[in-house]
Predict the 3D structure of the following.
Amino acid sequence: MRRSRHSRRYLRTITVTSGKGGVGKTNIVANLAISLQRQGRKVMIFDADLGLCNMDVLLGLSPRYNIQHVINGDKRLKDIVVKGPAGVLIVPASSGIEELTNLNEIQKLRLLEEFESLPGRIDYILIDTGAGISTNVTFFCLGAQEIIVVVTSEPTSLTDSYALIKILYTKYQEKNFKILINNVSGESEAKEVFRRLQLVTERFLNLSIDYLGFIPHDLSIQRAVKIQNPVLLRYPDSPSSRAFVDLAKRIDHTNDKKTVKGGLQFFFGNLLGAGENVGI
């Protein structure tokens, strides 16, 4: 397929996932997106948490359409994308995302064309997956350029995160994982949680994982969630908000344009191709 000029844009695609639910993954995606957007980057959130629409609820949005309407040919992608806080673009999930794991060739081509036709540049796509080791989670992990695994200090979070990493590594040869520790008292606890996960991955998988940082425990997050307003906007001076700003700067600083290339069409083509790798 001939690439248009849009395909030569630099684009960074990051899947944010977790071994278990309830670790704050969606909240992290929303606030990270806002922080990157405020730094002058154009960010799109791809809500891939099947059927739950947690991103919509978290941000107080009520989209009328979702990607199912695009798959069916009823709507254009530009018609379903909604603008969230700070101008972040959001592709609503609903139950439509589930269809991405079983598309025919016509549907694939339609989505490729729709993503390519979006106006303006996109610098980042942040993919908020479901939790666990389902086929759909694997699908989105393999489709993106980078994987961030959100982990907390809970033993179940550690064991389930290890299980996710193990499957992606042993079955699909994925070797690059960035670990973000959430809801901890400070850097000391965060590094201890990371060390525990690192020990088992090195011992049993002979795999090295990367420490990305941490988001501290902060009651401001709970208050912000209750009023469906991102903590970064509602409580900009809170410890967690400052951590999100630092995290965005750290992620953006490591963006190597020599190795991170491709436009929206490149990303979505890679994503759909991942379905073949996971036997979908």
About this structure: The first strand starts at residue 12 and ends at 18. The mean pLDDT is 84.
